[in-house]
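Final report, closing paragraph on structural work. Over the funding period we assembled a curated collection of sequence-structure pairs, and we close with a single example.
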Amino acid sequence: MPKFNKKGAVQQYARDRHWVHVGQAEWQQARAAIPEISETTLRAALMELGITIDQPFAGVDTKTMARLEESLLAMSLVYPLHRAECRAIVIKAKDRCRFANLNPKTAPDKRSLKEEMVEWLLVWLGDPAMFADWAALRKRHLLQGQ
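Its predicted structure, as stored:
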């Protein structure tokens, strides 16, 4: 018996529905149709197909500082409508970054990046409405330190 391919199942589900964009309704449909799929797998499978995903469902991108900032700014915009979802997603991202930062097997440059990301995520969690202003000041400060 072949192993169940979670990502493939999500992608087939999206293709069958001709999705090019996923909002709250589509996200909830996919979660209900394939409940064994994690949000991370769902998100990755949809993005791999080039499907755009609305926040907060798009999550927090921690690959680079620019992508982190962009996703947190977008998350701030939907925060008033999706407080619980936004906070849960940002807390998970913070925890993943903190784990990478504290992991001795993580390369030193990546550890410092993840440490900075934890700071940004904590500021967002403290007050999403003021995050944009703080991020602008923080970037200016970091540039002056170079």
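Helices lie at 6-16, 24-33, 39-48, 65-78, 83-102, 108-126, 131-144. The first strand starts at residue 21 and ends at 22. We thank the funder for supporting this effort.
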